[in-house]
Amino acid sequence: MDAAPAWAEHVPAWMSGNRMLELQGLTRQFGTTLAVDHVNLEVPDGQMVGIIGRSGAGKSTLLRLINRLEAPSSGRILSGGRDVTALDGRALRDWRRDCAMVFQQFNLVQRLDVLTNVLIGRLAYQRGWRSFMVLVGARFTAAERAMALAALDRFGLADTALQRAETLSGGQQQRVAICRALMQQPRLILADEPIASLDPRNAQVVMDALRDVNRQDGLTVLVNLHHLDTAREYCDRIVAMQAGKVVFDGTPAALTAERVRAIYGISEEEFAAEAAARLRADAAPARLAMA
C-alpha cells in the first residue's frame, strides 16, 4: 500500500474525508482559444496546492472558474458531491463566500481604513438593506469588529487598523486582503498570483500567512505562482499547466529540473528568468500606484 501523501499529516482530523473539490473535464473557451482544456483534478480538504505555468497557461482562468467568476464552457465543479456549476442566486453567493479569492493587486479600497477593508469580508453574510447600510457607512457589529481586529493582530497588523489602506506597503496590503478573505469564514482560499507585485521579503511574509491559514485553520489553499522554488517550499502538491492543460500533478520533490525542461521545453533557469521578467512588469504598476 502506498504511503500517505505528505499533506495528509496537516489535515485536521475533523476534516478528514469530509469534503473534496473535484474538477471534471473543466473547460473554458474564449472564441477559438481553450484557456482551460478539459482539466480533471481532485483536491482533498486541507491541501495546499501550487499551480504553476508560463503566462497564458490558464492558471488564473482556472481559479476564476472554481469561484464561478467565469462560467465553464463544459465540465463540472463538485464540492462534497454538490454540483457547483449548477448553482445560481443565493446558493451561488454562498459558494463565493465559502470560496474566498485573494488577488494579485490586493483589491482594497485605498481611501478606507484597514479595519473597514477587513470588515468588508463580512458583507458576504449581509442581505438586502443591511448590506446597503454597511456600504454607505453604517457600523458593523461589535463582534464583527473584534473578529477583524483579531485577524489583523494575528498577522502583525493590529497597529495599522485605523490607517488608510493606501499608506501600507504591498506586503501589508496583501496580508490585509488575506484577513478580509478570512472574515468570510471560507472553506477554500484561491490566491491568484498573490506575490507577483511584491519584493522577496514581502513575498515570504505573504506566503507564510497563506501557509499559516492552511496549517492552523485547515483551509484548502490553491495558489497560482510563478516561482518554482516558492511552490516547492510552501505547497504540498504542485500542478503545472500548459496551454490550458494539466501537464504535471505531483509532489514538490517530483518536480525536478529535468521534469521542468520536459514540461516547458526550457531549463529551470530560463523559466526563473521568464518569471522574474513577468514579476518586474507586474510590479511596475503597483509601484507607480503607491508613489
Question: What's the SSE blueprint?
Answer:
Elements: E1 20-30, E2 33-44, E3 48-52, H1 59-67, E4 74-79, E5 82-83, H2 89-98, E6 99-102, H3 114-119, H4 128-135, H5 142-154, H6 170-183, E7 188-192, H7 200-217, E8 220-224, H8 228-234, E9 237-242, E10 245-250, H9 257-264, H10 268-290
Parallel strand pairs: 3-8, 3-9, 6-7, 7-8
Antiparallel strand pairs: 1-2, 1-4, 4-5, 9-10
Helix pairs in contact: 5-6, 6-7
Explain this structure:
With 291 residues, this protein is α/β, with parallel strands linked by helices. It has a single domain (18-290), classed as P-loop containing nucleotide triphosphate hydrolases (Rossmann fold). It has helices spanning 59-67, 89-98, 114-119, 128-135, 142-154, 170-183, 200-217, 228-234, 257-264, 268-290, and strands at 20-30, 33-44, 48-52, 74-79, 82-83, 99-102, 188-192, 220-224, 237-242, 245-250. The chain has a six-stranded mixed β-sheet, sandwiched between helices. α5 (142-154) crosses α6 and α6 packs parallel to α7. The radius of gyration is 19 Å and the shape is globular. 40% of the residues are buried. Pfam families: ABC_tran.
